[in-house]
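Continuing the batch. This is chain 6 of the set; chains 1 through 5 are on the previous pages. Same settings as before, nothing changed between runs. Recording input and output for traceability.
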Amino acid sequence: MSMLDSSQRAQVVDTSHRALTPYVAENTGRIALMRGPLLYCAEQGDNPSVDLRDLLLKSKEPAVRFEPDLLGGVAVVRGEARSTVPGEGWEDRLYRTVRPREGDKRTVATRVMIVPYFAWANREPVTMHVWLKSG
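Output for chain 6:
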């Protein structure tokens, strides 16, 4: 039997970690959060101001907080993040003509809340991401 210690910190797992198979090329350069045996995920409902595809987690040691009123009580992870803002001209498009670009992508500072994977979609059906961009 595995017990979850309330003082356990969230651990950042990256694609070089042995927990990820090298055959999942889509997750190269991305990170996930684990706390003990639990995998965490970001839900759009908890992070409405950002597109989860553009989220860059900045916190090296995100804070774990117990939320007693959330789903009967769960530990969530909160941390600093940045949201990359795609360049102009991508609205409702998959492709566009290549244009020279000046400067880097713009980013916006934000806070992120990440919930245990087992709690995903228990409030409403929303977009969810486990593997986030590493910033």
